Amino acid sequence: MVLADAGCDVTLWARRAELAETVNSTRTNPDYLPGVELPEGVRATADPAEAAADADFTVLAVPSQTLRGNLAAWTPLLAPDTVLVSLMKGVELGSAMRMSEVIEDVTKVGEDRIAIVTGPNLAREIAARQPAAAVVACRDEAVAQRLQVACHTPYFRPYTNTDVVGCELGGAVKNVIGLAVGIADGMGLGDNTKGSLITRGLAETTRLGMAMGADPLTFSGLAGLGDLVATCSSPLSRNHTFGTNLGKGMTLEETIAVTKQTAEGVKSCESVLDLARRHDVDMPITETVVGIVHEGKPPVVAVKELMSRSAKPERR
Ligand SMILES: NC(=O)c1ccc[n+]([C@@H]2O[C@H](COP(=O)([O-])OP(=O)(O)OC[C@H]3O[C@@H](n4cnc5c(N)ncnc54)[C@H](O)[C@@H]3O)[C@@H](O)[C@H]2O)c1
Ligand SMILES: O=P(O)(O)OC[C@H](O)CO
Predict the structure, then answer these.
(1) Which residues surround ligand 1 with Cβ inside 6 Å?
(2) Domain of 200?
């Protein structure tokens, strides 16, 4: 919708032929965004070759853990000079690669032709054309500027950034902190807890980012604080909602069963912790989320452990 509203011709790939047909005939995607009318500039197809043909930008928005497999099939279909754009906010399990690294690894396209779009961009609000800012990041600023033009609309305001590492980490780790805040909400804890988790969550995200060569200022921008605040405040966030259900006492299996869309932090909390250990960075909130989500630690016990860590200066 954003690209079409900005004047681009968009071909949307859908896995199911019947969904592509529904999008074309009704101009809606009733399974995911009921009630939202898609602009004329969006056409759907179930044929990835048709979607990829001659594309100036190939925008990738599949779950982070399926990207590698999807791209392996799509790489031969990509237009020769296309810019690959990641909307995904996750880290690959096992390799601990960021999404742009997975894209480079599979397609062998150089980092100057790989960009990301991130920031406080809850899909439902974007689809309602509510005002939002975003970050378009690419190592090659000229490419970021081209993409900025391609997605700039009266309601969607993209800023450029060349710190791809920082922007990607901001997006992936905020999902983990969103889970933590959701768990606290579900336990009935209040806004002091939320403010503390958001701030200390941003501190551990920044520590990891700096260890990986990111610019610390990125984390006070849209890809860091901006997205963290949106995710941790909103009932529209899948990660936040997933955490709230866990905090209310639902089991992991029950929570997965009621979650219809991708909550990236559920898997990426493990890969973020993996990254932290590879870079020797302390990430206590991420570790706590892994403990609750994957090791069956009761939230009450996890909170006690987090609060009884040794006292230390704030800036360390
Ligand atoms: N929804 C948002 O508000 C939002 C905003 C910004 C970024 N993102 C990011 O976008 C990415 C995708 O999230 P989403 O909101 O579109 O999730 P979603 O669950 O709504 O949609 C994921 C899509 O991927 C498809 N899919 C699932 N498994 C697949 C597979 N094996 N191969 C190919 N396609 C598959 C699903 O059919 C679905 O169409 C995530 O990384 C998320 O963090 C989402
Ligand atoms: O629904 P979530 O938790 O995946 O969050 C969506 C977007 O990333 C918010 O910017």
Answers:
(1) 15, 32, 61-64, 66, 70, 87-90, 121-123, 261-262, 264
(2) 174-307
